[in-house]
Amino acid sequence: MTAAPGTPAHAQTAPAQAASAKAALAKAVSAKAASAKAASAKVSPINRPVYLIHGVQWDGGTDCEASWQNAKAALRREGFRGPLITWGYYRGDRRCAVTYQGDVDTGIVELGRRLAWEVYHRHSRHGRPVGLLGHSMGGLIAAAALVGVHKNGGRSRAWPPYLRVADVVTLSTPFQGVACAAELLQCHDMRGGSPFMRWLASCQNAQGRGGTDWTLVGAYDDKHVVPRSALGSKARHKIVYLRGQRVTHPNVHYFAKGARWKFRYSHHWGKQVRQTAKGAAPLRVAALALRSKAQ
Asked: What residue stretches are annotated with the DUF676 domain (predicted)?
């Protein structure tokens, strides 16, 4: 039974009141969800979490705090206020915010899968985009996370359904492989033409939900990962530091200051290459790249 026209609200029947309450509750829930979605979309890049992923360590461990202290300082100077999360993947890693208990025989695809779940559980499923900064093999792990989700997300329970990664920056990452003679799985994965490298190359510039902006950084003084390899993947932004500046493979992720660095750069997928003698240090370049894309 419904209330007659003109019947006061307080005189409505119990079923009508229940229906009205349910409708109000549904409206409130919908409004709250819309508000949360809008708030997520307005998150400034400087408030986003940034994952810092170190490179391979053949002795099976690294000190995350020592490895990334300059990067953290550079990000803070550029105004980043969000969590700066050092992600380790060896049992021997020390002072890392988050660590997966792997070793040098843990494949890079598996490390990418573990990173993908870490990002999804902590951030993506809550609508929060993140940034990824990887040095050397750390950049391959970041790429593997996005490629694996692109290939398998929503089709395999082994991978998250999606990731929200706004920016990826790689420092001296061997996208075209590197000479490696050790009989270890990670070494085998990084050799040019390996099954892993072919798998990765089949999905360059992999995108997360909301889009992902890629920046690749290399250096001519890097004798381990030559520029052809460091810049050897599809990306909108590519930067290579010129010779004579001592930007080497072990220290590219330590240089944070100065405004007279010489490098060539492209913001057009490797085309329209320009050169400057008044460029920023590698870590400042990384910081600026990590705040380039709003989601």
From this structure: 104-206
